[in-house]
């Protein structure tokens, strides 16, 4: 008797923006394709599909990740936050509002990934994480100001084919200042924080 052929599909349950979504996927399906093609969540964009442009950035357990390099089956049990989960009702996240107010985009295709990255960058910076352009990386050193150079370096994984970088840097700086000025109670809760 021939050995049973192993199944190439599995039923998985993904926690996306605080909501459980159950679906059956081919084991090779990326999180990006599961979001866009299976769950109709097209806010997350596909650019290069090989981890180089950042258009597909989402948050996994609060940390940024390129969803084109993440298998959907490996995202089970993680808190996934997409651009659709950043606002709280009609209240945009301060970073979203800053991108709107300062025209941090042209065509807008890279924008969801830029905003997801920016929100994580602000949290990484607030937690004292250094970057490649931080002068003093000793643990006892004060965190560097989130200067334009720091923003450019920390956002360097997110490409913008329209070249809207000047406005993007301004929007991230404004978003960081607004986020800092608001108490955590005032901030729209990303779903993993609200869970
Ligand atoms: S589409 Fe994922 S990094 Fe470009
Ligand atoms: S706004 Fe068009 S790719 Fe960035």
Automatic annotation (TrEMBL):
Keyword terms: Iron, Metal-binding, Oxidoreductase
InterPro entries attached to this UniProt entry: 2Fe-2S-bd, 2Fe-2S-bd_dom_sf, 2Fe-2S_ferredoxin-like_sf, 2Fe-2S_ferredoxin-type, 2Fe2S_fd_BS, Aldehyde_Oxdr_Iron-Sulfur, Beta-grasp_dom_sf
Residue ranges of every copy of the 2Fe-2S ferredoxin-type domain listed in the record: 10-86
Entry superkingdom: Bacteria
Classification via PANTHER family: OXIDOREDUCTASE WITH IRON-SULFUR SUBUNIT, OXIDOREDUCTASE, IRON-SULPHUR BINDING SUBUNIT-RELATED-RELATED
Entry protein name: 2Fe-2S iron-sulfur cluster-binding protein
């Amino acid at each position: 008797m021939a050995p049973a052929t192993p199944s190439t599909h599995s039923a998985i349950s993904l926690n996306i923006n605080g909501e459980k979504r159950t679906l059956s996927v081919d084991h090779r399906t990326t999180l990006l394709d599961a979001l866009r093609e299976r769950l109709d969540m097209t806010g997350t964009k596909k650019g290069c599909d090989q981890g180089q442009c950042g258009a597909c950035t989402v948050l996994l357990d609060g940390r940024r990740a390129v969803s084109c390099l993440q298998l959907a089956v490996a995202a089970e049990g993680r808190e996934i936050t997409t651009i659709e989960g950043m606002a709280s009702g009609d209240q945009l996240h301060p970073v979203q509002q800053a991108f709107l107010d300062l025209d941090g985009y042209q065509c807008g295709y890279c924008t969801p990934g830029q905003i997801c990255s920016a929100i994580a960058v602000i949290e990484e910076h607030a937690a004292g994480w250094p970057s490649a352009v931080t002068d003093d990386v000793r643990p006892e050193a004060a965190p560097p100001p989130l200067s334009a150079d720091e923003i450019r370096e920390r956002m360097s994984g997110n490409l913008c084919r329209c070249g809207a970088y000047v406005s993007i840097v301004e929007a991230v700086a404004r978003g960081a200042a607004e986020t800092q000025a608001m108490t955590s109670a005032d901030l729209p809760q990303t779903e993993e924080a609200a869970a």
